[in-house]
Structures are given as structure tokens and as C-alpha cells.
Request: fold
Amino acid sequence: MQMKRKTQPSSEHTEQVERVIVRPNGPLEGEVAIGGAKNSVLKLMAATTLAEGRHVLHNVPRISDVGWMGELLEAMGARVEWVGPHDLAIETPEDLVPEAPYELVEKMRASIVVLGPLLARFGRARVALPGGDDFGPRPVDMHLRALESLGATIDFAHGYIEARARRLRGQRIVFEFPSVGATENALMAAVLAEGRTEIDNAAREPEIADLVRFLNRMGAQVSGAGSSTLVIEGVDRLHSVEHTLIPDRIEAATFMVAVGIAGGEVTLQGARADHMDILIQKLGDMGMRISPSSEGIWVMATKQLKSVDIQTLPFPGLATDYKPFLVAALTVADGVSIVTENIFSGRFRYIDELVRMGADIRTESHHAVIRGRPMLSGAQVRAHDIRAGVAVALAGLKAEGETVVSDAFHIDRGYEDFVEKFKSLGADMDRK
Ligand code: EPU
Reply:
């Protein structure tokens, strides 16, 4: 993949935008196009390793993480190129080097999802062990246990996971928690295993249902997409396909919450309300009006938001990825809110940044108590990860003066044209 902004997502792109500057804003007005889902495309790209040939993905967002996954596939021997504004072609040769080096895994933990498909297709895979991150520890024990129950032998050496299996065999896998990544790894391994696999307590996220659609189009036999039991009848071979990604519900949530904070009326083109039921209910409780429209989702906010209690849960519960945006909104809502994080123990780090902006938040274990105020105070803050960076930028929409978000390259990992899209809605936002 060549490294050119607008034509190629790239690692260099991450260096280009260092700071996002936000001033008080509102109302936001107009339409914004929601791109394809980051957390779907990364897995579909991994799934292309399962079959030789030319795969074409449509509605692919031009974000840095797609660039990193492209680099990983190329490091294994695939060819990855943009063939349209949001169309990505991946040419998988008959042979790949089934290895994910540390330099790439370290940049993007999601690379771990190549483990299952590589093992299933080549009988071996070597993938760097991802470390922890700003969310706290990020173990992969469930991924490995699932692959072991399909017959893999797993060893660790020099910071790498080394998995081997002559041919995987279908099994019943029961997850102790519906992990998104572990479900995806087990699923992508099981499609080429011998016999029938049943995955119980599988994650039900829409991105997993998208992966199942993709795999079935490749010739896999998977049923139960979107439910907590996936049944997979293994097949001997898969073939290359074309596929259009589902919209990014987290990008859609970003703009919804932004309207809640700044006020206004916006249509989220291409967004799917049926992927965001609980968020829509919560934002309704906070005083927003949201409804599906023929174009996507229509969103309106006319007055200060009201406080509400929230807790994150696996899908269809409220996604942990929405939480930083909601916390930002609750800092300027009327009343006291209690927020409980049930997925990632450490996912509260951006709260210190919000406190620097004058937010009244107290944390205790995995809970946060937020006392809303009418307005925050713009400050220099840091993006610790994608969603944390977005949360402080959203808070800046209702903060006096200027909010300067540094390390904003994190935002570009998951958002295409973040600032430009906000500007198109009339927001006073810049990048430097
Ligand atoms: N977990 C384990 N062992 C495992 C796997 C997970 O203990 O083997 C724990 C995790 O530590 C965490 C919980 O299970 O406490 C849930 O983790 P999960 O595996 O579901 O998350 P993930 O696959 O690592 C994906 C998304 C995240 C999103 C989570 C939860 C991608 C690339 N990432 O991560 O998205 O927050 O699911 O929905 O799909 C983001 O987009 O910014 C992002 C972080």
C-alpha cells in the first residue's frame, strides 16, 4: 500500500495531524455521511487470508488502522490497493507467510485476529503477543483456549504466540464472556476445521454478523449470526468475494452525542438505528429526539441534556466505545449521573483530561459519578486512545475558549476526515 493521504490510508498519515482545536459550538446543522465500520473492516481484511484470489471490499473507511492492517497483509505476501474512493482490493496469493510481526501488532492490537484464519489455512501461525494498553490489561486467553479446543498446540517464544495444528477439528466452545475478538478468531478458525463447531456465549455485535455474512459469501457454512450461538460446519476451501461493509455505529454515535452537547439538527446518512437501540434510548432519556429516516438517522437537540445513569455491556447493551462520548456529554448535562464500566477496567483515563477542562467527575473502581455543569473550560488535553481523543474534542464543543487536543493521530486511527465532517456541520474546529 502506498502512503498517500486521500489515495492511501497510511502510517504516515498518523503523523500528519497532531492537534485538533475546538471552540464552543452550536447548533450543528446539516448532513454527515457515516463511513464503513472500522471494527468490521479490520476483521474482514484478516478473513481474506482464508482464501486465495482477489477480494474487494466496498464502503471501506480511509483510516490509519486500515492502513496498518493493509501493511500486515502485505508483510505476509498479499497485495492491497485502493481501487475506488472507499473500495479496497486485496489479492491473496496461494501462499502467505503466516506471521504477524511485533512492529505491527504493537500499533494495532486487532492484528491478533489473523491468528485463527492463518492457523486454519496454513496449519501454523506466529503472531506477536499484544501488550496492555490505555484500557489496562488486554489478555487473549479466551482466543487461545478456543483455538486449543479446536486442536491447536499453542507455545510462546520470544514474545510471540506460536500456534500449530495439522487440521483443526470442530468442537463445542463455551466462552466465559462474549469477547468480540475471541469470537472472531474462533469463528475464522472453525470455518476451515473438520466437522461442526458450536460457539456458545458468542459476542453478538453487528460487526460479527457482518463477518459471518462475509464468510458465508466465501463459501463458509455459519448460522446464528447476531445470536449468542454460532454453528459452523467446516468446509475444505473458501473462495474470494466482494462485500460491502456495514456503517460504523461508533462514528454515528460520535455525531449523535455531538449534537446533544452542541444542540442542532443533523442527519447521519447511511447510519443504522437498529445497531444502536440502547444508545438511542439513553439519548432520548437525556432529552434528545432521534429517529430512523429513509437516509439514515435523524437527530435533534434543542436544550441542555439531562443526567442519566449508564452501564456498558456486551451488545445489545450499551457499547463501551460510546461511553467516553456519553461521559463528555454528562459533564455538561443537568444533574448527577452514575456511569459504570463493565468491559474494560481501565477505560477511564480520559476522565483526568475532562477534569482539566473543569468537569466534576469522581471515580471509584469501575464507577464514575458526574455532576453536570452548564459549561466547561477549554484547556490543553491529550488523546490517550481513539475514543478518548474524541471525548475531549466533544467536550470542547461546550467549553469556553479553546480546547487543544494533542496526540490527535489517535483519532485518525478510527475516523476519516473527523474535523472536516464537523466543519461541514458548521462546527468551529481545526487541525494544526
Ligand atoms: N478479554 C479477556 N480475555 C480474552 C479476550 C478478552 O479477558 O481473551 C476481556 C477483555 O480484557 C475485556 C473484555 O474481555 O475486558 C472484552 O474484550 P473483547 O475481546 O470483547 O474486546 P476486543 O475484541 O479486544 C473489540 C473492539 C473494541 C471494543 C471491544 C468491546 C475491535 C478492533 N475492537 O475489542 O473497540 O471496545 O470489542 O466491544 O473490534 C475501539 O474501536 O476503539 C475499540 C477499542
Summary: Residues 38-39, 42, 110, 138-143, 177, 179-182, 203, 319-321, 343-344, 386-387, 414 surround EPU (CB under 6 Å).
